[in-house]
Amino acid sequence: MRIGIYPGSFDPLTYGHMDIIERALKVCDKLVVGILLNSSKNNLFSLDERVEILRHCCREYENVEVMSFGGLLTDYCKKHKINCIIRGLRAVSDFEYEITLASINRRLAPDVDTVFLMARDENLFVSSSVVREVSRYNGDISTLVPPHVAEKLKAKFS
Ligand code: PNS
Fold first, then answer.
1. Taking the complete model, does pTM exceed 0.85, yes or no?
2. Which of 2, 18, 43, 85 is the residue whose CA sits 20 to 30 A from 64?
């Protein structure tokens, strides 16, 4: 059985992430969405809020489990018998960071492969940071995030 993990900060979840989750389910039998527990980052949404948002937005996918993790991703993979890491790629600018991450992860866990999925054209410029910025100034984010996330953002900035 191919168990994948789609790790990230998801602060907040975007339609770009949702697209990668849907497509990862065609590559993996089961997908863990792994939300990074990272106290050094100044997140907009708390870990509990992000877990709730992800669980709500993925509630219709039987084979998706939303979890949080701390420490090394590869340690989490080994512990939970995860054999593939899913990452989304948008522009070339993502590549340098992603190749570093994938290379280090392979060195730490040679049996865990990283699989890259290209973002759809309409999501090439969708990022959590863009969503936070537009939302902060009350811009229209309806094409960037699911309605549940839009509600949470509205409450955050009201
Ligand atoms: O959404 P992000 O912030 O780009 O996701 C980054 C993430 C969570 C994939 C990455 O920071 C990560 O895997 N962190 C856990 C620590 C780790 O294993 N780092 C890789 C070796 S340096």
1. yes
2. 43
Number of domains, the chain: 1
DSSP, res 145: S
Neighbours of 158 (CB within 10 A): 6
Does 7 map to a domain? yes
Residue 34, in any domain of the structure: yes
pLDDT tens digit sequence for 15-54: 999 999 999 999 999 999 999 997 677 899 999 999 999 9
Ligand 1 binding pocket (C-beta < 6 A) is 7-9, 36, 72-73, 101, 104
Pocket test for ligand 1, best of 9, 74, 127 (most atoms within 8 A of CB): 9
Of the candidates 15, 4, 14, the one whose C-alpha atom is nearest the C-alpha of residue 86 is 4
